[in-house]
């Protein structure tokens, strides 16, 4: 799985909004500056997140962006799907739409298993979890394995 810059920026922007839920709307410029995200790129991402129902916005001097739902009701998967589409695809195709023959036949269940594991992790972690630095135990356990931090 490859996490695009767009998905990374979207999650970071959503986390910034989650961390400031009590402060009122945040301007895109403030989010971009605090997270080191190019402002114009972030504007497009925030618009996708607004169309996807994850953020709300208001124009004007007191305007800005805020989460449409509480941070504990938005998963990391929700954010990635809104800006990048399916979590796992093979050549741009969702695994259930693929078919293989011969010795490659068992690739399909492998891709389905990869997708299931990615879903389990990203759907099981909310913005509130990440913003509070309290990841679910199963995610923390995976990240604590020293081999997870190395590139074979």
UniProtKB/TrEMBL annotation:
InterPro entries: Tscrpt_reg_Rrf2 (IPR000944), WH-like_DNA-bd_sf (IPR036388), WH_DNA-bd_sf (IPR036390)
Pfam family membership, one: Rrf2
Keywords: DNA-binding
Residue intervals passing through the bilayer: none
Family annotation (PROSITE patterns): HTH_RRF2_2
Record-linked NCBIfam families: rrf2_super
The protein's name in its UniProt record: Rrf2 family transcriptional regulator
Species classification: Bacteria, Bacillati, Actinomycetota, Actinomycetes, Kitasatosporales
